[in-house]
Design a protein that fits this description.
Structural class: alpha+beta
Strand order of the largest sheet: 1-2
Largest sheet: 2 strands, antiparallel
Strand content: 5-15%
Number of helices: 3
Mean pLDDT: 87
Oligomer: single chain
Radius of gyration: 13 Å
Number of strands: 2
């Protein structure tokens, strides 16, 4: 989610920017989108380690909304590897 000021966070419900990834006015979106921070977050989400995803994820009731099918996840992990 990109906020009005350019801050990028992992979630549209993150109004307090607890899972802030950076700012697209300072760092290109492609760099943030493909960076190590979001990669670690994606892997933790896929593995169900929500506590490792950030402070909001353990309290979230939308976990299933971002579910990725197994084939797509396997392809991503082959391309990126472990964090």
């Amino acid at each position: 989610m990109v906020q009005v000021n350019g801050d990028l966070t992992t979630c549209c419900l993150d109004e307090g920017l607890e899972n802030r990834l950076g700012n697209i006015r300072e760092t290109p979106l492609a760099t943030l989108w493909n960076g190590e921070t979001i990669h670690r977050w994606r892997v933790a989400q896929a593995e169900g380690r929500f506590a490792d995803s950030g402070p909001l994820c353990t309290r979230c009731n939308w976990r299933s909304a971002g579910a990725v099918d197994a084939g797509r996840l396997e392809k991503y992990m082959k391309e990126r590897g472990p964090p």
